Structures are given as C-alpha cells and as structure tokens.
Amino acid sequence: MNTRHFILYAASAMLMLAVGCSKDDDIQTTSKQNSSSSQSNSAIYPVAAFSATVNNMTVNVSSTSTNASALYWSWGDGSSSTAYSQSGKHTYSTAGTYRITLTAESSTGHRNSTSRVVTVYPTTVKITGLELHSFPAAPSSGAWDVAGKPDIYFTIDNDIRNTTYYTSSTKLNVNNSDCPLTWYTNCVITNISDVTCLTIRFYDEDDILEDEYMAGALWYPASESNNYGSRFNWRNSSIPLDFTIYMTWYSSKGETQYSKSADYVNGKWETDDEEVKQLLGL
After folding, report:
1. Where are the CATH 2.60.40.10 domain residues in the chain?
2. Distance between CA atoms of 7 and 156, rounded to whole angstroms?
3. Which of 78, 111, 175, 217 is the most exposed place for a label (fewest CB within 10 A)?
4. pLDDT 10s digits, 135-151
5. Sign, CA torsion 6/9/12/17
6. CATH 2.60.40.150 fits 124-250, yes or no
7. Is the preceding peptide bond at 180 cis, omega within 30 degrees of 0?
8. pTM: predicted TM-score of the whole model, two decimal places
C-alpha cells in the first residue's frame, strides 16, 4: 500500500466513525427527551363513586372511587370535609332531603365528582299534648253515661305490635261546649318508620259498666306530621271528631332507616321519587 492510499483509507474510516458517533448521540439524546416528556405528561384520571346508608340523622358513606388520593365531601347542608379513608359519616341537625357530592382527586390533581340524594329523619317521637276540639254525640240508644256527660280519656295504640303506648287521664263530666279539652302528655315512642301506624282512641269511662268506645282515628306519624313537624290535626265532621296532637322529634341511636337516592347516569339524573325530583329541579 502506498502512502496516498493509506491516508485516504484512514481519512475515510475517521469520517465514518465521526458520523456514526454523531448519529448515536442524537438517538440517545432524543430517547432521553422523549422519556422525560412522557413522564411529565402522564395524567391519572380518578372516577368518583360511593354508597350511602342512613341511620337516624346520620348518613354513613363508603367510597368506591378509583385512582383517588384525596376525597372531598359536600354534605348538602352547607358543610364539607376532606378525607383520605374510604369511609366516613355525617350527622344532620335537621330532618330533610340532602344532596351529597363526592369529589375524587388523583395524585396528578385531576378531579371527578358524583352525587347522591338521601333523606334523614329521627325515629323517636315525643307526644307532648293532645287537644280535643269536638267529640261525637251519644248513641241513639242513650247517653254516654248515667249523668249524660262523658268522662273522656284517650289511648295511643299500635295495633300491629299489640301495644298501648299511652293512656291519658280522664276529663270528668264534659260537654262539647267545654272544648277544647287539653291533655299534657309525656309519651315517647321509638322505632318510628315511614309505615308506622298508630291509633288514637277516645273512650267514655264508666265506674260500673265497661268503658264505652266513642271514636278513633289512624295516624301515620312520619308521613302525616308535615315532614316530622310539631303537630298533627285530624278532623271528621261526619262523626264529628276533631283533635290535634303536639309532638317533638329527635334521634335515637341504632334505628336503621331507608335512604332516598338518585343516580347520575349518562349525564342525567334518574329517580322516581317526587321529593327528590323537586330537590334536583327535574
């Protein structure tokens, strides 16, 4: 090999090496840049989901959210909380229907929300009084008692449970013109549900003969007291019988009740409950 051929061969090899190194460096640098970009653009999207059960005035919630590192609860009564556990609870001060919203947040800051509607109410009622406005006239066969004026008392019964919760004192020798007749009571009834039915019965007390049944009425405390209000009025002008019950509601522990709910499916609320529809503006 002469000197000229050696120089050309060496120069060609050096050029190929230089080009090869430059190309490898470019590939390595691009790979690092792509890896860094992929890591910075990797997003984690959460999906919020939860169940809710009602226990008196307290709602117990359990999150089944995925990809969530933080949970934000809005309870529908103006209060909210942040939780990192999958379960929690909230106690309401007033009976009613509330919209609970859960927002799940991922480690990359992305959020997703879902809502449910629940109804909470106390399950113990304290009957504080009864006011009798009018009572039936004596049967055609005779007077209510020998004196012609009934001695009136009433009972509060649960016929399904075969239980008498309360028997009042007796108002002696009364006429309808003496009404309203007022009894102050301290009758506490627990385990009230939306299907609980009580019977209010009025009697004419007799010292010698059997007490005579005068009239009565069925009462569903949960649904007929203006959403757990403080009074219930019953009137039947054909008997006639007219009375008002006064009460207060409060929570008693350990009574599990139902929850009304609405599900958010395919971008819209689904529920058959009219109260929930009104709350959601459906």
Report:
1. 50-122+256-280
2. 119
3. 78
4. 887 776 666 765 567 88
5. negative
6. yes
7. yes
8. 0.52
